[in-house]
Amino acid sequence: MPSDTLWEIAKAEVEKKEISENGGDGIEVCEKSVFFIGSKNGGKTTIILRCLDRDEPPKPTLALEYTYGRRAKGHNTPKDIAHFWELGGGTSLLDLISIPITNETLRTFSLVLVLDLSKPNDLWPTMESLLQVTKTHVDKLIVKLGKTNAKAASEMRQKKWSNMQKDHPDRELIDPFPIPLVIIGSKYDIFQDFDSEKRKIICKTLRFVSHYYGASLMFASKSEALLLKIRGVINQLAFGIDKSKSISVDQNKPLFISAGLDSLSQIGSPPLSENDIGKLHAQTPMELWKKVYEKVFPPKSASTSKETRDPARDPQYAESEVDEMRAQKDQELEQYKKNSSKSWKQIEFDS
């Protein structure tokens, strides 16, 4: 029985194809990985398809999906490979985050967090859960890497500061994410119709979080111009294409801020009166921004989120025949429980 995983087999097939296409000339092929996580039905698949120039309708992501793209550096040169991973289900499948990010892929890995701007009450919990789990996993891998390759681990810790100028006034106040991070606010076409004060709070909060993690921030919609901008940023992560230095911080327009170009002084303080801020008890700036944000956009109750955690009850995976059989089996189980309960009561009574 072969012990290779599906990932190893797929990778070997791609490498074999590349060697044959390049005539086996031995020129090194660059490989990078981009992992899309974020809000459920937030538009991750649409962005990936656009980046790969695939004209096909997006399908719901079941759990963890993989595809890849290739791009030639120049004429008669081998094509670089970009591995695209996508986590479905929003925050319901956090355990799967550790599958694509391994010691072997860690140093060429980037993260894209897609947040649905049209659902501001879900925004912070989604962002916090996904980033915390990913960061914890990556930090553990870097520690593990340090035990076998101290130089590589040290280079990774230094690399996370690469987007921040040495004389940037906020260097001591931020904590860059351990791997390159891009935050995309999707469904801007809906968000732009929000009340101006709500838009201001969401924009300032996302700017703070992005700057704190040394991430790039941009808003996306169905607009072709915005999708082209997003595509350029993803291509930079996937193929090392020149990075954009453009910036747009006007809350009345789609935000576009490359990593390292924002500052705490430009972002300003959390959008709350000094008197109200003084009443909030927070240990860190991140916690303060969270409390201010959730004061305006309280997260949905835990019971609501638990209901959506069961994929069997998720409408996007509906299959009439399967669902009917499932409903029948559920009824049979309930009847069995009732009958069992009655029989046990009778036994107890008889004794």
Automatic annotation (TrEMBL):
Region (Disordered): 299-351
Subcellular location: Cytoplasm, Cytoskeleton, Cilium axoneme; Cytoplasm, Cytoskeleton, Cilium basal body; Cytoplasm, Cytoskeleton, Microtubule organizing center, Centrosome
GO biological process, one term: intraciliary transport involved in cilium assembly
Transmembrane residue ranges: none
Compositional bias segments (type: Basic and acidic residues): 323-337
InterPro entries: DYNC2LI1, Dynein_light_int_chain, P-loop_NTPase
Keyword Nucleotide-binding: no
UniProt keyword list: Cell projection, Cilium, Cilium biogenesis/degradation, Cytoplasm, Cytoskeleton, Developmental protein, Dynein, Microtubule, Motor protein
Keyword tRNA-binding: no
Name used for this protein in its record: Cytoplasmic dynein 2 light intermediate chain 1
